Amino acid sequence: MEEIRRLYDTMTPVILEGLGRTYQAGTLLTAGDSPVRETNQAIADRAGLCPGMRVLDAGCGACGPAVDIARHVPGASIEAVTLSPVQAEAGRAHVAACGFGDRVRVTVGDYHHLPFSDDTFEAAYFVESACYSADLESLFRETRRVLKPDGSVYVKDIFLEDRPLSPVETQAFAELNQAYRSEIRSTADYVRALRVAGFTRIRVGDMGVYGNTVFNAAMVRSEGDGPALMSSGEPELTAFGRAHWYPLALQGVTPVHVTDIRAEAPCSTTVVEG
Fold first, then answer.
1. What pTM value is reported for the model?
2. What is the pLDDT along the chain (274 residues), one digit of tens a residue?
3. Structural Rg of the chain based on CA atoms
């Protein structure tokens, strides 16, 4: 996790310039004029967040989602956790500027070892952050520890397509994980880890909800009605694009998609082994 912390301490200024306070590859395909805000609101709805809940934002980034969710869900209080002190500073500034300092608190920490007591939260969510965990079973056991009985966990993330890969897809997937220091897995891997951690009623979302139009647009400098092209004919990358580039990044061959998973913590404290 130390490598990931260093990455985001360095990358946060570039991310803020390129995408703003919300750092997500997937935004709603049905979104209107405010795709980022609408996506964050949809995350709150799809996670089942209700007014007055105490909620964990595990891997909060610069708190774009946390602020939008706090605005969308009246009275909800959010404990936002990030590994990166630079992200935390940016997140606290955003929270304060938007007037949510009494409802969103930002903590620097590792989501595998949360600084909260057992049975603290009614809900937890991971917005494209669980993919940095090297041990999903440990991660979701810790999540379950801090959830109240009948609490829920929601994961929106980038997932590996669960099928045989071609050589070029295998190469692109390896390049993606190297570029982002991530450990992207399939939805089946997440379902298995959630079950081992003791979660039940696990539901995997539709693959057609989220797309990467906003993220990809931020990678390429625009000119007129299209991308600016270099003399080679390749798109000219922005600073954000250069920071996220890998050789096959824009070729449409990376075998991943964005979707979500929701699960519930039963009243029983029994944990499945295996």
1. 0.93
2. 889 999 999 999 999 999 999 999 999 999 999 999 999 999 999 999 999 999 999 999 999 999 999 999 999 999 999 999 999 999 999 999 999 999 999 999 999 999 999 999 999 999 999 999 999 999 999 999 999 999 999 999 999 999 999 999 999 999 999 999 999 999 999 999 999 999 999 999 998 899 999 998 999 988 777 777 777 777 889 999 999 888 887 788 999 999 999 999 987 544 444 3
3. 18
Helix axes 2-18, 85-97, angle to 10 degrees: 40
Q: Helices (DSSP H) in the chain: which residue ranges?
A: 2-18, 35-46, 64-72, 85-97, 136-146, 167-180, 187-196, 213-219, 239-244
| Residue 186 burial (C-beta neighbours within 10 Å; 0-12, 13-18, 19+) | middle
Distance in angstroms (rounded) separating the CA atoms of residues 112 and 107: 14
Pairing of β 77-82 and β 104-108 = parallel
DSSP string, 120-138: -EEEEEEES-GGG-S-HHH
